[in-house]
Every structure is written in C-alpha cells, then in structure tokens.
Structure of Muconate cycloisomerase 1:
Amino acid sequence: MSDLSQTITGFDVWHLAVPVVSARDHGIGRVEGSCEIVVLRLTSESGDQGFGEASPWSVFTGTPEATYAALDRYLRPLVVGQKVGDRAAIMAKAQRAVAHCTEAKAALESALLDLAGHIAGLPVWAFLGGKCRDTIPLSCSIANPDFDADIALMERLRADGVGLIKLKTGFKDHAFDVMRLERIAQDFPEFGVRVDYNQGLEIEEAIPRVLDVAQFQPDFIEQPVRFHHFDMMAQLRGMTDVPLLADESVFGPEDMVRAAREGICDGVSIKIMKSGGLARGQSVARIAAANGLMAYGGDMFEAGLAHLAGTHMIAATPEITLGCEFYQASYFLTEDILETPFQVENGQVVVPDSPGLGARPDLDKMKRFSVRTSS
Ligand SMILES: [Mg+2]
C-alpha cells in the first residue's frame, strides 16, 4: 500500500537520556551528564514507519516528562486511526488539545512527515514547499565553562571548515565574556561570531553590558534579557547598530506578530521545538521576512533526528538566511542516536534527498539510552 490515505496504526514513545561530552552553560541554565529527549515512532497499515524527536529543556521550553505525557496520553488518541496524509488536520487538533508542549507537537509533525515521505518515496522537504538550498552553514555554540576546552573545540571547528560560532554569554561575570571575545578576535579572526545571552542579564545591567559587547561587532546579539521584557529588548535594539535577535521571546507565529509590532528585534531564532512543528516554524519565518526581519535556524539540546527535521524545514524556507546551529550530534553528544551520521561537510549541513527525514534512529542505541518507553 503506497498511498497516504492509509491509517496510522502504531504509536510508540521513548524517553531517552543521551550522554554528552561536557557541561554547557547557557545564560539561565546548565546541561551536563546527558540531554533528555523523547522519540515518537508512528506505524501505518502498510508497516511503514516514521520517527520524530522532541528535545525539551526545562528552563526554556518544558520537561521531558511533560513531553512524554503529552504524546503518550493526550496526543495518541488524536493520531491513531487517522489518515497519514491528513497532517494539517491532525496538527490543528493537536494544537487545541494540549497547551504549550511545543516539543511534543514538533515530534508529532516530524514523525507524520517522515512516515509520509517513506510511503511516497519523497524527502520531507518536498512536503514543505520544495527545496531552496542543498546545504546550510553550520554555527557551533561556545558554551563550555572551561574556556580552554572551548579553545580546543574552536581549533577542531576551524580544521573542519566550520565558519560560524556563537558565544554563550551572561552565565558568569562580564569580564569572562569580554576576555573570551578578545581571545576569539585575536586567535580566531576567521570565524563569524554571534553572541547569545539566553536571557542571562538583569534589567539593570543589560544596557552597559550589551553596548560593551557590541563594540566587538558580532553578527548579532541574541536575547540578552528575560523573554517577557519586550520593552527592554526594544530599548536595546534602538541603542546599537549590531542586530538584536529574539529567541526565548518568540516561540510561535503569534509571538512573532507581537515582536514585529513592538519592534523588539532585527531577527529571530526559529526552532521547531518552540514553534510546535515545521509548518509553524515556516510561518514564523514568513512573518519575520514580511516585516523586514532576519531569521536563523536555531535548535535545542537535540540529537540527530531533530536536527534532520530542522534541516528539512530550513531547506524549504528561503526566508531563513542566517544558517543553523545543528551542532550537537557532531560536537556535543557522546554518541548520536541515528543509524548513519548526521551529515556535515566542510562546515555545511547537507540537506538529505532520500525518502523521509533521511536517516533512522538506531533501535539498539534507543534501548541503551532508554529511561522509559511505551513500546
Ligand atoms: Mg538562543
């Protein structure tokens, strides 16, 4: 059976803890030991399968426990028995059935697209409007509290042909941030440098610190203050020529409309884990572009399966022009969950042309990293 009118018969969920190589500090939170993700597998009448990943982070989007419950208990009954091709209808129901839990919805839409792709013999980007690029420039985040380790990472990145780095700031003192920017400018001048505070600054310290960092002329400065401080974001934007990016302030298209109206940013970090899926991520990009704003392909602490979903979304979205940060599978996880490596060549993520997302999770690894599963 090769048509998309067949029904979805299987719905399996895994909560995984995937080991990581080091600690990482990001403004308002730290990740160490492992990153916890949730993987969904859908099966259709024909026996075809589609996989999707949710990559929650408790201080940012939500918890793995809530993500698991959203899928296993609340979204399962909306999906099993539905037609594979009715993705828009299923996602509209999911949007109303569970508040927030955007990572669960991203995993659901990824799995629906992967399943449809395997049945139809088409890559996921073909279902999202077609492809506008074959590769996407990769940015790797510099976020290790041990800066010597990050210097070794930057040397590796340079050797690998990666041209973009994003310095995570605001988790220690300002002198540490300035010291690292000076060192990068001196020893790694070939990198395009972005700065991301991940909401790390208090209101009273934001203006002097952001203006100080702006003197280094990074490509952009991302989310210096807490997500709800729209007024301070708008004020900072008016004080510097360096573009200000919104990340935590903008989850879905609704936030993007408000952000554009209130003039809080020059661009936005788009993540399928925030928008609640690939189609909604494309909507964020189009609203941004229609308002003259830039867009960047961000991510959470993800494994390669989520990177692939983001890659297909960006491949089909010409408005996302600032590259992507799908570095974790290559540079942060001890071992990725995919059967074949997430493909990065000479600093560029390669857009897959094979059916579905382009790679499958390795079930033996899933078993090894499993915290719990419904299967
Ligand atoms: Mg960010």
